[in-house]
Design brief:
Layout (H helix, E strand, L loop, with lengths): L3 H13 L6 H6 L7 E2 L3 E3 L17 E4 L5 E4 L4 E6 L1 H4 L5 H19 L6 E4 L6 E5 L5 E2 L2 E6 L8 E5 L1 H4 L3 H15 L7 H4 L5 E4 L18 H16 L4 E2 L2 E6 L9
Parallel strand pairs: 2-9, 4-13, 5-6, 5-7, 7-10
Antiparallel strand pairs: 1-2, 3-11, 8-9, 9-10, 12-13
Bound molecules: zinc ion (ZN).
Length: 261
C-alpha cells in the first residue's frame, strides 16, 4: 500500500472544506445571514437569507423577535459610537473619510427624524458600537455586502461598511445607512416574515410595500415607516403595548449605560 493515494485523499478532503455553496444553496440557507439590498447587493444584518419573495408583500412593519422577545431601546437612551481606528488607518485620508461617514450617518439620522427612538453621540469612552470601514469587499454569487449593523441589545457592536457601498450614488449610500439604522432601531427586513421563518419576526403597523427595510428600487424611507416606528416606541414606552402577537417587548439599554439605569 503506497502512501500517495492516502495523502491525495487527504488533500482532497482538506480542499472540500473550502468549497463555497452555490447560489441556489445560499438562497435556501436560512443561516447565511444575507439579504438582497439594491438590485444585486446585500445587507448582512438579519440572521438569515431568504428565498426570492416574488410578488408577496406583507403589509406590515417587522420587528425583531429572534431571541423570543422583541428588543426595543428603553426611553431616553444615547448610543455612543466611535470609529474603529485600526480600520480607518488603512485609508490614505482617514480624517476626510471619517468626516464623510459622519455626514452620511448624520444625514441618515436626519431622514429618520423624530421617529428615531435613540440618540447618537460620537464618544469613544466606553462606546456602544464602532464603525468598521472595511478595506476589502465581501462578495459572493448574490452580489456584494454593502453594510451590516445590529439589533437593539446591551452588547458592544459594529456597524460595518464595505468599500462597495462607497461606489454607489450618494443618495443610495444615505439610503443604505438609513436601512442599517432601521436594524439598529429594531426593524427586520421587510420580507423577514415570509422568507426568514427561522428567525421569528413580529408584525406591527399597516405598512405599504414601500419601505426602507425592503430592497431594490422599493428601498426608500416612507412616511409610514417613520409613523409606524414612532408609534411602536411611543406605545411601548407608555406601557400601552407590552407584547406584539403574544411576544413580549423587552427594553434594552446600551452597553455604556448598563448598571446606570
Ligand atoms: Zn438589512
Amino acid at each position: 500500500m503506497s502512501k500517495k493515494p492516502t495523502s491525495q485523499k487527504k488533500d482532497a478532503a482538506h480542499k472540500a472544506v473550502f468549497i463555497l455553496k452555490d447560489k441556489d444553496e445560499l438562497v435556501k440557507d436560512k443561516g447565511s445571514g444575507v439579504h438582497h439590498y439594491g438590485d444585486s447587493f446585500i445587507c448582512a444584518t438579519d440572521g438569515s437569507g431568504h428565498a426570492t419573495p416574488g410578488n408577496k408583500s406583507p403589509l406590515e412593519i417587522l420587528v425583531d423577535a429572534s431571541e423570543g422577545f422583541i428588543p426595543l431601546w428603553a426611553k431616553n437612551q444615547v448610543l455612543r459610537w466611535t470609529f474603529d481606528e485600526l480600520s480607518v488607518s488603512y485609508f490614505k485620508h482617514p480624517e476626510a473619510l471619517k468626516n464623510y461617514v459622519r455626514e452620511l450617518l448624520g444625514e441618515a439620522l436626519l431622514h429618520w427624524g423624530d421617529a428615531a427612538p435613540i440618540r447618537f453621540s460620537e464618544n469613544a469612552d466606553n462606546s456602544d458600537f464602532q464603525i468598521d470601514l472595511r478595506q476589502s469587499d465581501n462578495c459572493n454569487a448574490h452580489g456584494c455586502v454593502l453594510a451590516s449593523a445590529f439589533f437593539p441589545d446591551s452588547g458592544r457592536h459594529q456597524l460595518v461598511v464595505y468599500p462597495k457601498m462607497f461606489g454607489l450614488r450618494r443618495k443610495e449610500q444615505v439610503e443604505t445607512m438609513m436601512h442599517e439604522l432601521g436594524h439598529v432601531f429594531g426593524l427586520r427586513h421587510f420580507f423577514a416574515k415570509i422568507s426568514e421563518a427561522a428567525w421569528p419576526a413580529k408584525i406591527f403597523g399597516d405598512h405599504k410595500p414601500f419601505s426602507i427595510m425592503n430592497y431594490g428600487s422599493k428601498s426608500v424611507l416612507t412616511h409610514e415607516d417613520k409613523r409606524d416606528l414612532k408609534e411602536l416606541y411611543e406605545m411601548a414606552w407608555r406601557g400601552d403595548l407590552i407584547e406584539i402577537n403574544g411576544t413580549r417587548i423587552h427594553f434594552v439599554t446600551p452597553f455604556h449605560a448598563m448598571g446606570i439605569t
